[in-house]
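Researcher: Structure for this, please.
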Amino acid sequence: KRPAPHPPRVVPAAEPRVEVAEARVRIPEVGVVLAGGLIDDPWVVPSNLAWTHRSSAPGFAEENGWQDRSDIGGLASWSAPDGWATVALSLTTGEGLALRERNSGLNTAGLVVVRPLSGSDRPDALTIGLYGREGSRGLGLSRDHRLGGRLSTQVGPVLGAVEHLRAWGVAADSLREPRGTSAWIAAAPGQPLAGFVRVDRLDERADWDEDRTHVLRAAVGLPVAVDGSRTPARLLLLAEQRSVDPGVAEVAGAFAEQRQRMLGLQLDVNLQGAVPLSPLNPLAQPGGTLP
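Model: Predicted structure, token format:
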């Protein structure tokens, strides 16, 4: 008998995914913003605004699966008239944008952003952010708590930040208690030379030995023209080294598992005006500047 022919290969079509779909009401007279729907995460959004190279790597919390970009729920925020402080409180389902709700618990998260130099000639020179979340995840109502802080700055053509985040429970595993720190320095957007250096350190458990992951990223590049238009673009030379302790590597002692390196080129194109930073975002400074 002749073998049956192989069935035709089916290539799945690309499916768009909505990450934010919210209704928002702004009351500028009192500095209040109310939002509901698939809302921004209070920790992730300021991180994205401070870390200007998301196309090269997600923020630390997103990359390690500790925070979702958005979630179903509601958010209320208040900002001081001169922008020196912003307070935001969110109430969400806790399963993130990609999973359906699996328990009756709700996540409560709060963010306080203070800009002590808002009245000076360098209002972006220092921003302090404090974040906390009490929540659950999964069918078993596993704890999913977070506590973090961030210092960010922009002085002239240079910006940078350092953030630390602790987690009690990750991905419905209540026993995981990782913590991590991410620090970076980068050229501010619009400069003739683009580039950054970022260092991440992840400690899976404070009371365990040899369970840390270290990631060093660096990039340098120049702006380039795109089809002769004025659309800003940049070509970056990227380098990355990821080192893990033996307790993290799948094969303890294997060099290929414990140290990985990457070198590549990346072209970034910014469709200016297509997706502007909205001044209505309660997690950004009034006027849409970096937090």
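Researcher: Any notable elements?
Model: Residues 44-50 form the longest helix (7 residues). Residues 273-280, 286-291 have pLDDT under 50 and may be disordered.
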